[in-house]
Amino acid sequence: MFLLSVYYNMDTSKTALAVLCGAVGGCILGAGYMLWRGHHHGHGHGPFTQGEFENIWAHTQYGEEEKELLEKTISFKEGLEYYSKIFELCSKYKNESITSRALDIGCSLGRTTFDLALLFNEVIGIDTSVSSIEKANKIKEEGQIAYKFLIEGEITKDYVGKVNPDIDRSRVSFIVGDACDLPSDLGQFGMIIILNALHHFPDPKKFLLNVHKLLVSGGILIIDEMYVWHDMLGLPKDRWVSGYVKENGEEVLGIDGLKNILSESFELLETKEIPSITRWKTRMCMIGFSEGTVWKRK
Q1: Is the pLDDT of residue 206 over 60?
Q2: Which terminal Cβ of the chain has fewer Cβ within 10 Å, N or C?
């Protein structure tokens, strides 16, 4: 028996996610079920109708089609290695012959930004959240972050997370900014990474049409995305990269949407399924599998 709960992080304006609480103690299936607040058994609030919740419940309780995909794609161990997998991908496509600068757009608290400092002489992390950038700069200064992790109810446990001591944190800088309105003096980079942030941009299509200008010739763009497009995010449909139906009835899904926009300026080098686990509390986590795509500027 699976129970569905829905949560929304109002503080960071991150994506609302369906929580499938099952025999494993509680997982969030982050493969596209994006919801507003709701109750058990599908009685929801917000933009989702009762019928939409019932469709999700039907697929949760009776659907067989995606089980094979999940079995092949997801394991807890693989999900815990998400940032290592991202770093491996960046390492694989690091081009020593071009500028040693990297840009992490939607950097949050800077984990990947710091990791990139093992590969590049200069790394800039940018995020719209003032709070996240303040914390990232504090981590840069102190090399660690103290935080509370939810155990159950009102019970929390104190932790200290530390940056890899091999990383030269002086190579890293963090700024508050909008991906669609970046500072004019940023210059060009040898690599740009965007990790599950594209759907939060005010105009993802516009950004992708112009991102090549931020990369030197031969520069690498890495996009890891779950393709989360929904009206609840406040993004007009004409700005969606994929997940829509053309007038002729053609469905535009995932990477096809990226190809439609990027192919003029980029060559697609690789696609890769990358599992992830986000731990919300002791017995609840988010399991996701995003699609990593690697593009080389022509």
Answers
A1: yes
A2: N
Q: Is the sign of the CA dihedral 66, 69, 71, 74 positive or negative?
A: negative
Reported as a pLDDT band with limits 50, 70 and 90, residue 69 is low
Same domain? 147 vs 85? yes
- With the C-alpha atoms ordered 33, 35, 40, 41, is the resulting torsion angle positive or negative? negative
Give the total number of structural domains in the chain.
2
- Where does a domain end: 58, 73, 88? 73
- Which 3-state string (H, E, C) describes 220-256? EEEEEECCCCCHHHCCCHHHCCCCEECCCCCEECHHH
Instruction: Give this prediction's pTM.
Output: 0.80
Question: Do residue 22 and residue 85 come from a single domain?
Answer: no
Over residues 149-153, the mean pLDDT reads 87
Query: What is the domain range of residue 122?
Result: 76-297
Confirm if 176 and 125 have CB atoms less than 8 A apart. no
| Number of continuous H segments (helices) and E segments (strands) in the chain | 8, 14
Q: Is 210 a residue whose pLDDT tops 80?
A: yes
Same domain, 37 and 158: no
Choose among 176, 155, 150, 90: nearest CA to 280. 150
